[in-house]
Amino acid sequence: MVLVYAESPRGQFKKAAFEAVTFGKKVADQLGVPCAAIVLGANVGSAGELGRYGAGRVVQVSDANLDHLDSQSAAAVLADAAKQLGATVLVLSHSSTGKSIAGRLAVRLNAGLVSGVNALPEMRGSDFIVKKSVFSGKAVAEYAVVSPIKILSLMGNAVKPDAIGTPANVEPLSVPVPAGRIRVKAVKTVEGTVPLPEAEVVVSAGRGMKDPSNWGIVEELAVTLDATTACSRPVADSHWRPHHEHVGQTGIAIRPNLYIAIGISGAIQHLAGVNNSKVIVVINKDPEAPFFKAADYGVVGDLFEVVPRLTAAIQKFKANN
Amino acid sequence: MKFLVCISQTPDTTAKVSFNADSTEYNSAGVQFIMNPYDEWYALVRACELREALGGTVVALNVGPAANETTIRKALAIGADEAVRIDADPKSAAYTAKQIAEYAKGQNFDLIFFGKETIDYNGAEVGAMLAEHLDLPYIAFASKLDLNGNTATVERDIEGGVEVLEVDLPFVLSAAKGMAEQRIPNMRGIMSARTKPLQVVAPVAADETVKTVRFTLPPAKAGVKLVDPENMDELVRLLHEEAKVL
Ligand SMILES: Cc1cc2nc3c(=O)[nH]c(=O)nc-3n(C[C@H](O)[C@H](O)[C@H](O)COP(=O)(O)OP(=O)(O)OC[C@H]3O[C@@H](n4cnc5c(N)ncnc54)[C@H](O)[C@@H]3O)c2cc1C
Q1: Which structural domains are found in chain B, ordered by start?
Q2: Closest-CA residue of chain B to A246
């Protein structure tokens, strides 16, 4: 069986969980085995919905100790559940939750882990081959997972959640839940915007903006596209924009469907965090800017003219479609 | 306080990526190696700051061949008091974590630091694995860490926000941006690093659960399509009809 841990930060499923179940179902189909999803916590909304994404069974360990993430208790519970259910492949999201747990689970189950997977595994003979992007997107590594139990953590935006099925019944699962040793004092979230790692469209700007007071045109474009805003490192370092917007090698790595880079030169450290984006648009006045080499579409021009023009063109497009 | 900082060595991001003839190994010939930035800038520096404030010892540990000693000496120059090198090729996260666990288990470290991930394989695996081997709490992506006696207050980056957590020592964390500011080693640090103790430890056997089969290069991009800056309707059309992202 393929067992998917569908994470539910603060009681809510987000895209990461639906992607993981969609991916798990596809792996299960490849192997000709069933796919089940597991949910942790007493206070989780509509777990049955996971059935729509392909989970034939949904099990829930309903214990308030699991409402906040503690990697130790979560890993212990997931390992016990995997054994009880006879799972041979475990799927987690490559998120702040999944990354806290996957390594622990691998040790507990003596299972091979490949993290940040972005494509379905391949069965070559009896070998279970998994690929991931390495060296800042400059290469792809292929691994054979040789242990009886295999663990994969799935990169965000790597598969499109497919709501093909019907809701499932949620079955309670009884496993011992060790008390966590980490105490949650507060959770501060930025409300109202899609967090960068989950965003499908990202509008990002760099030092070419000249001054933080010029960001209005970037924000307007982002609003028009329902996009999340990002920035280059020097922009965050000079406090023109908040740190959580910093993408790149030392910031957040993202892979949206559309990345629009405005006044960013495209240094390798910046590209390291964004070159897995599906489509890249670069707006830069310098035709020699290295970013054009990594771009799908390029506009050589002054951003202060091009960006408002692009916003207007998108508004027009939206009005007509 | 006894702090352990696990450091890894990675190719500089600007390094050219190539592989050996059968594409099974990274070709390190002529490549500039650096200390993984998260390990150096955030984990190591914060450990040194805490040692300066509270007293104690910072041990820098690397699993790697003798060639890594330049990187290890840099950790000593930045401020670690002593270093350990486990003499093995860190061929997988599981293998590396097992080596560190064997070394650390009898040593009573109060706090074990990792960087949030390495910039070459971006696995974010070893810290969680070590924590499990040692049966310790683990906080990934810590961007702020303060100690008050035996209790730590930690802020951890999550999608779209932060969690404020409290945990008693000992525990394992991985450090992200915000935890400290990069330090450039000064002359005194570099001189003293030469004479600080660097212990070499033999590795232990470990099960192999994941094997590297080969590396391939990603498909080349088709090349950029330039759009007239006066004609953004055309860009919108391409994004809609050709790229299908609008
Ligand atoms: C170890 C290390 C890690 C790093 N990590 C990161 C990271 O995670 N993320 C990151 O972003 N950087 C990172 N950097 C920094 C990186 O090397 C670059 O310095 C940085 O990305 C440059 O930011 P920028 O493109 O905004 O600025 P610049 O390089 O100054 O580029 C500005 C661009 O704007 C264009 N421009 C100016 N005016 C206009 C205009 N009116 N209209 C249109 N275009 C205009 C210019 O042609 C230029 O291309 C790192 C560096 C190191 C050494």
Answers
A1: 2-217 (3.40.50.620)
A2: B177
